[in-house]
Amino acid sequence: MRFGETPIDEAAGAILAHSRRADGVNFSKGRILSDEDIARLKQAGVSTVVAARLGSDDVHEDEAAATVAKALAGEGIDVTAPFTGRCNHFAREAGLAVLDQERIDALNELDESVTVATLPPFARVEPRQMVATVKIIPYGAPKAAVARAVDVAKAANRPMISVAPFHAMRAGLVQTKLPGTRDKVLDKAVGTTTKRLTSLGSTLNGERRVAHDAKAIAGALAELKAEGCDLFLIAGASAIVDRNDVVPAGIEAAGGNVIHFGMPVDPGNLLLTAELDGKPVLGLPGCAKSPKYNGFDMVLERLAARLPVGRAEIVRMGSGGLLAEIPSRPQPRDETDSEDTGPQQAPRVAVLVLAAGRSTRMGGPNKLLAEAEGAPLVVHAVKAALASQAVEVVVVLGHMADDVRAAVERAVQPRSRVRFVTNPDFAQGLSTSVRTGIGALPTTVDAAVVQLGDMPGVGAPLLNRLIAAFSPVEGRAICVPTVGGKRGNPVLWARRFFPEMAKLSGDSGAKHLIGEHADLVCEVEMTGEAAITDIDTPEALAAWRARSTA
């Protein structure tokens, strides 16, 4: 890759290294300079630019990031579209991050241009939480480095990054009592244990309170086993201090086997693991009565994720096992909190498909119901939205609402995530449909893509690229697709603009907000002309049909 000062007459096709915002020019770094861009820069008096030009042995940063990210990803991982050389891995479900630390280190040693950063191994993740990110440092990476990274990812015939989802468990709890043991303390332990299990999607199926005696413990285990429990928890009134103590003796009296006693985790040292008819049994340390994170949680999480928790796994918990010195454990971000204080979440982006217009320029028929490539225009738009990484799709109806809705419902799955809302004021212009759509979105949505129903070339990859570009923390709150420097549609809007969009009027939509918030606009260059091609006239429809069948 060549990098440095480049004469403006030689810069066409090069990648702009630094943003330029002056003299009527507003170009972001990473922009591939077109002939039109060069003309505008020369008109502004620019004679040289700092730019990068990829060689034949280089891969563009986005292509490199996508290639490596795909090779790394295993079960339970969703990979975002690449943007600025970055691809993120997000958890599909709640579970534990399963990472191959050795191969991650090996990949990061290959070449300084290719990097991957992850959560710690076995970190607990929530749905849509970021697990890892692949970042290509310069604007391109050597093909050889990308190929070696893929080889490392596939070397062991198992994924480097995956999420083991939590599975429901039916737990039984045995609590022992000594003279003076208060029921209030035992009741509190039931509540704490129930909350722990519930957070993992599991339940407390039954509880027994018995004397602190091996025979009594064995009897309680037998009863819980008969009730269908598949996990047994024993909280002794006195801490376990030896493999031959009362709790392990009770497990063996019930026909179980002790696997390991003690763990290099504090708090949680006195945890005991065992099995009864192939089902896990845990002798709990005293800290299990506390809601604070401890060694019991570490083992319980792995059991819920159906990961091994034998002696070998427990003795390796010592690295990072000094939990007493951790003041707090990060919790997932409150969905109603605008501050990014917790683990980074995949943005919750909705797509608003505007399908309420009267098609006045078509000369009569509703253009959204006109067929192209075997389906009405509106169906192309809805299917693209459903295939994207959007969390929900809202179709705004108006003119011929029943017919448009019927066309969509015939084409998509009955249980798809499409919602329909009707704009009673559709005759007053596009802004009324935007207002109706924005008003229908839940408070959990972080952003919305306003997609026109008459742009059949817009597919899921284009929508995903807009979603990947969205990052309010980095100043990318309005994401606009461009083709050869020309802005198009659809446009992604951060939630912060919803109040202003709810006050729109007329037939121009929210375009003026782009100019008013230029510092928050991110231009996302697209290939092809889908982002600048809409169908407004019979001639435009005929031309699009001709191109699509060529």
TrEMBL record:
InterPro entries membership: Bifunc_Mopterin-bd (IPR012184), MoaB/Mog_dom (IPR001453), MobA-like_NTP_Trfase (IPR025877)
Record's keyword terms, sorted: Magnesium
Recorded superkingdom: Bacteria
Pfam families: NTP_transf_3 (PF12804)
Disordered: annotated segments: 323-347
Domain MoaB/Mog: from-to ranges: 172-305
Magnesium as UniProt keyword: yes
PANTHER family for the chain: MOLYBDENUM COFACTOR CYTIDYLYLTRANSFERASE
Name the UniProt record assigns to this protein: Molybdopterin-binding/glycosyltransferase family 2 protein
